[in-house]
Amino acid sequence: MKILIDTNVILDVLFNREDFFQSSSAIWDICEANKAEGYISALSIPNIVYIMRKELDPQKTCQLIERITMIFNVVELNEHDLNGAAQMYSDDYEDAIQMCQAKRINAEYIVTRNVRDFKSSEVSVLTPAELLNQI
Predict the structure, then answer these.
(1) 88 Cβ contact list (under 8 Å, min separation 6)
(2) Which terminus, N or C, of the chain has the lesser number of Cβ atoms within 10 Å?
(3) Residue 18, SS3?
């Protein structure tokens, strides 16, 4: 199973967000154990580093990126993704990019807590808990 994981699922684990940690962490575990091919957008990594900037110094940033890229495959960002996302006229350009990337890599699912933000996705969208119920 090939899944594209939204940035918020990664941040749930990194920030130990109480309401979401368990299911998001289980998604990480499934990808780390190679029970699913987990992908994240190349756009997610700088966004994560920016959001966590107060907790990170250069060494911790390097360790974080190494950890993420050891567990998840990174989908490169290309011109087709940028233009395709713009043509979707979405309120959230970042989510539109991820929808284009998920389609391009033939992902079965996009895994996110914000399913409503992906309503125009051609790829099926599930929350971490919904994906866990399907496995």
Answers:
(1) 96, 99, 100, 120
(2) C
(3) coil
Domain assignments of the chain as residue spans, ordered by start: 2-134
CA dist., res. 20 & res. 88, Å (int): 29
Please state the pTM of the whole predicted model: 0.92
Q: Residue 88's pLDDT is what?
A: 93
CATH 3.40.640.10 fits 2-134, yes or no: no
Cα–Cα nearest to 88, from 121, 116, 43, 123: 121
DSSP 33: T
| Direct distance between the N- and C-terminal alpha carbons of the chain, in angstroms, rounded to an integer | 10
Report the 3 state secondary structure along 66-128: HHHHHHCEEECCCHHHHHHHHHCCCCCHHHHHHHHHHHHCCCCEEECCCHHHHCCCCCEEECH
